[in-house]
């Protein structure tokens, strides 16, 4: 595999400090169109502090068998997909709607909601909230979804578990608590999660798209608190969202076409008015972004040398040589074409049959070299044990108050190991076709806007730019001819943008993987200008088919000094924030912990939360 760190990062970050309380005040609506499909929800009263602005959290419940797709993939388990819907702060009845998805695969969208672009951030006590003036729900109805199944608060069958985070990767063990409750400590917790069965969730972007479309069919036709005058639906996706966003929107658009021509095989299917696809530091193409993962650690606009020239030359030779890593990825992508239609479950059971030469050819990779450095994957100016963006939301969602308000029968899972390993087994990361998906959407009239923070290694802007220039669509040559021009915000210049018509790519300055946390205004302005049909650089010009930015053909002339690096700060629910030395003391209980932060590392017993 090329970037298992992208897939597996943060898997130990599970918040299961206690069992969820009994659900109260939950409304349940039965679908008028599909037997045994229901929506359960309530007003949680959390996060949004603006008077009169409502939010609703709940689940869309899909029974076993609904997602059987006729290709041998059987859904013999329930799918209970969690959502948190926020009305726009201004005129929600006239506002469009945007879906937000984090990546992983297996990452919860609560990361984005509570740590990037939602109505609030979580304070460092992991209990209180901070109003976010740059929330994306200022003028847009926002829908945050935990997908696929077993991610975040989405679940199949609630299962009592014991969670051990003391090892390199979290270990989750289904446990019968009827006879005895295990002793807990700083690295051993108990709670209720999904079953952890790999056969009870999806294993590819294609499968996940199918499940999300059925969620959307139910939510957009039957959720009683979404009856807009503006029915436009957009999707913004981050990180592995470079697969999710294009893959999901392509499937939605294909279903729309079947609805229009009368070939859809689903009763009561509802046309979804697709407006905009937004990609935030997304992973679109393995060939291009693997090459970029070699370039970026050696040559970036901050002159940070994560690897030296000898390592760089060796990696690039291995990548470009005949029969090397690039050739094997391309060959693997050819072998994978169409596999989602007939052999995904077999691929999961017998992964060695898929692309055996690629793994050997790509052992020497930029990802592997980077892992041996002291830099953070999501921000090369930060230390490996990066405390930013702060993971306070994990502790917040472990509270009984939050669990009760959200009426969740399961504890929060920030990142699902089960889902990640499923996607690894089917080589979904390597699977091509997502550049084609973006091109198809553009030629279908869907707007596409890409933004990349220029400090991120994991899905860096070099690979993002390469991907943008490789998208095959009818105006591709016109897009390539457009130059870069400054992204203007009230704070000055926030980056550089290339735009032609409804398609843009922006390099955002001084931002890591999660742009809205680093540069909230720049991210907000890109989002708003995209949805309301204004040019991305200024927001002053209406977008038309021939709109083209003017300027230099690349952005390498703009170099900046790196920001000051933060000191590591160990948050025990996110072990990746802890240095190895401190984590060893956490495991042995020789620390004092306050609000999930290690405040002393002396030999003082088990500590307290």
Notes on the protein architecture:
It is an enzyme of class 3 (hydrolase). It catalyses: Preferential release of a C-terminal arginine or lysine residue. GO terms for molecular function: serine-type carboxypeptidase activity. Residues 1-17 form the signal peptide. This protein is α+β, with helices and mostly antiparallel strands and 609 residues long. It has a single domain (41-286, 298-308, 375-570), classed as Alpha/Beta hydrolase fold, catalytic domain (Rossmann fold), CATH 3.40.50.1820. The strands form 6 sheets. Strands 2-3-4-5-9-6-13-14-18-21-20-19 form a 12-stranded mixed sheet, with helices on both faces. Strand 15 and strand 16 form a beta hairpin. The longest helix is centred in the middle third of the chain and has 21 residues, at 241-261. The two termini are 38 Å apart. Residues 1-16 and 602-609 have low confidence and may be disordered.
Neighbour order of strands in the largest sheet = 2-3-4-5-9-6-13-14-18-21-20-19
For the sheet with most strands, the description reads:
12 strands, mixed
CATH class bucket:
Alpha Beta
Tally of alpha and pi helices: 19
Number of strands: 23
Q: Gap between N and C termini, in Å?
A: 38 Å
Annotated CATH homologous superfamily: Alpha/Beta hydrolase fold, catalytic domain
Shape: globular
The percentage helix is 25-40%
Mean pLDDT: 91
| CATH fold name | Rossmann fold
Structural class: alpha+beta
Catalytic activity: Preferential release of a C-terminal arginine or lysine residue
Protein name: Carboxypeptidase
Main location: membrane
Keywords: Carboxypeptidase, Cell membrane, Glycoprotein, GPI-anchor, Hydrolase, Lipoprotein, Membrane, Protease, Signal, Virulence
């Amino acid at each position: 595999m090329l970037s298992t760190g992208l897939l597996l990062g943060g898997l130990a970050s599970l918040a299961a400090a206690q069992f969820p309380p009994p659900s109260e005040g939950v409304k349940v609506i039965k679908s008028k169109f599909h037997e045994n499909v229901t929506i359960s929800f309530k007003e949680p009263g959390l996060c949004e502090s603006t008077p009169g602005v409502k939010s609703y959290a709940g689940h869309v419940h899909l029974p076993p068998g609904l997602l059987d797709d006729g290709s041998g993939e059987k859904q013999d388990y329930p799918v209970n997909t969690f959502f948190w819907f926020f009305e726009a702060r201004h005129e929600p009845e006239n506002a469009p709607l945007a879906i937000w998805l984090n990546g992983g695969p297996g990452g919860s969208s609560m990361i984005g909601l509570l740590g990037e672009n939602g109505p609030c951030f979580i304070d460092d006590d992991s209990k209180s909230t901070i109003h976010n003036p740059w929330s994306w729900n200022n003028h847009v109805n926002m829908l945050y979804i935990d997908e696929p199944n077993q991610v975040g608060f989405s679940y199949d069958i609630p299962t009592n578990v014991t969670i051990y985070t003391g090892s390199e990767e979290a270990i989750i063990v289904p446990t019968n608590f009827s006879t005895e409750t295990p002793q807990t400590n700083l690295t051993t917790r108990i709670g209720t999660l999904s079953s952890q069965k790999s056969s009870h969730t999806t294993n590819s972007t294609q499968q996940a798209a199918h499940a999300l479309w059925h969620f959307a069919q139910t939510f957009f036709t039957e959720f009683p608190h979404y009856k807009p005058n503006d029915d436009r639906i957009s999707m913004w996706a981050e990180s592995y969202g470079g697969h999710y966003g294009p893959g999901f929107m392509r499937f939605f658009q294909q279903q729309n076409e079947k609805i229009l021509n009368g070939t859809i095989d689903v009763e009561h299917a509802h046309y979804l008015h697709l407006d905009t696809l937004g990609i935030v530091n997304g992973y679109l193409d393995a060939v291009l972004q693997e090459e970029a993962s070699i370039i970026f650690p050696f040559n970036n606009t901050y002159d940070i040398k994560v690897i030296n020239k000898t390592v760089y030359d060796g990696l690039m030779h291995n990548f470009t040589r005949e029969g090397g890593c690039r050739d094997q990825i391309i060959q693997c992508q050819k072998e994978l074409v169409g596999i989602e239609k007939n052999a995904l479950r077999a691929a999961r059971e017998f992964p060695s049959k898929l692309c055996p030469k690629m793994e050997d050819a790509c052992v020497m990779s930029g990802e592997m070299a980077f892992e041996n450095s002291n830099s953070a994957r999501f921000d090369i100016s930060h230390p490996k044990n990066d405390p930013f963006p702060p993971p306070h939301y994990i502790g917040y969602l472990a509270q009984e108050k939050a669990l009760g308000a959200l009426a969740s029968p399961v504890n929060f899972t920030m990142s699902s190991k089960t889902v990640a390993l499923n996607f690894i087994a089917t080589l979904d990361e390597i699977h091509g076709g997502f550049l084609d998906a973006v091109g198809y959407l553009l030629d279908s009239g869907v707007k596409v806007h890409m933004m990349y923070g220029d400090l991120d290694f994991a899905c860096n802007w070099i690979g993002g730019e390469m991907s943008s220039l490789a998208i095959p669509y009818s105006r591709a040559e016109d897009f390539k001819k457009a130059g870069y021009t400054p992204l203007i915000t009230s704070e000055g210049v926030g980056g550089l943008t290339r735009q032609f018509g409804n398609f843009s790519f922006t390099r955002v300055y001084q931002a890591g993987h999660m742009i809205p946390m680093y540069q909230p205004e720049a991210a907000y302005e890109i989002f708003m200008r995209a949805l309301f049909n204004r040019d991305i650089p200024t927001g002053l010009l209406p977008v038309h088919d021939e709109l083209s930015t003017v300027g230099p053909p690349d952005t390498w002339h703009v170099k900046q000094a790196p920001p000051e690096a933060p000191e590591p700060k160990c948050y025990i629910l996110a072990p990746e924030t802890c240095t190895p030395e401190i984590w060893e003391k956490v495991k042995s209980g020789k620390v004092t912990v306050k609000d999930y932060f290690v405040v002393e590392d002396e030999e003082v017993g088990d500590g307290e939360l």
